[in-house]
Amino acid sequence: MTDKLAEICATKRVEVAARKPQGLARWPAPTPVRGFEAALRAKAADGFALIAEIKKASPSKGLIRADFDPPAHARAYQAGGAACLSVLTDAPYFQGHEDYLIAARTACDLPVIRKDFMVDPWQCAEARAMGADAILIIVAALEDAAMVEIETAAREQGLDVLVEVHDEAEMERALGHLRSKLVGVNNRNLKTFEVDLATTERLAAMVPADVLLVCESGIGSHADCERMAASGVRTFLVGESLMRQPDVEAATRALLLG
Ligand SMILES: O=C(O)c1ccccc1NCC(=O)[C@H](O)[C@H](O)COP(=O)(O)O
Hints:
By secondary structure, the protein is of the alpha/beta class. The protein has helices spanning about 5-20, 35-45, 70-80, 90-95, 100-105, 120-130, 145-155, 170-175, 200-205, 220-230, 240-245, 250-255; strands spanning about 50-55, 55-60, 60-65, 85-90, 110-115, 135-140, 160-165, 180-185, 210-215, 235-240. An eight-stranded parallel barrel has the order 1-4-5-6-7-8-9-10, surrounded by six helices. Strands 2-3 form a two-stranded antiparallel ribbon. Helix 9 links the parallel strand 8 (about 180-185) and strand 9 (about 210-215). The site of the ligand O=C(O)c1ccccc1NCC(=O)[C@H](O)[C@H](O)COP(=O)(O)O has 19 residues, from strand 10 and helix 11. One of its GO terms (molecular function) is phosphoribosylanthranilate isomerase activity. It holds the Pfam family IGPS. It is an enzyme of class 4 (lyase).
């Protein structure tokens, strides 16, 4: 099995080197940052909080949604009760695009995380320039110094940071080196694509009380959310299972409320 995450990050480094000289002037000035973490904490205070993902395709599943319509999906997610959006902007592996983030954010009032592979602090300025309210740091993809540098750049831009881990060692690195109080456990092993909800259940006990834990990947039903809630988890990042539904708004409501 090849290490897909390493391959994606190597491709991303080449892409970023090519994009940097183009600068950031191609986008109009974005509207002010919408509080991503604050929106999640507000919803999680009295129910489940959802980061609903706009995801056309993935390396593990190929094409997920043929009639892909980011503004329509954004409106449906908001009407269904999502707290925030996640929009894939990586093109080579997810058929994403920065225009999808811009269109989705413009179509609703929700804060948006730029879902991409951050390998260079410059991508934080780029994320804010296209309108993002938060970025993702994947601990497995970065050395300690690099992830600290990217988190610092994100904070300078006023962006919230979702820190993603997959095992105990990554959780210790995240809690030991980074300041963000928003930590996601990805149930998908990004090297093998295996998904196991028990990953969140195992790591939940390591999370301090002031950190908001996000359960990421493989959530397909309200019953899955209830299962995670037994471990104290009330915040979820969900893509594929919602994107496959004909009625995204109804599916979002059903996921959150049962
Ligand atoms: O989804 C993939 O196949 C994938 C492959 C390699 C790196 C990242 C990948 N996905 C990113 C994510 O973690 C998910 O898009 C996100 O957590 C939502 O997961 P799901 O609800 O299972 O679509």
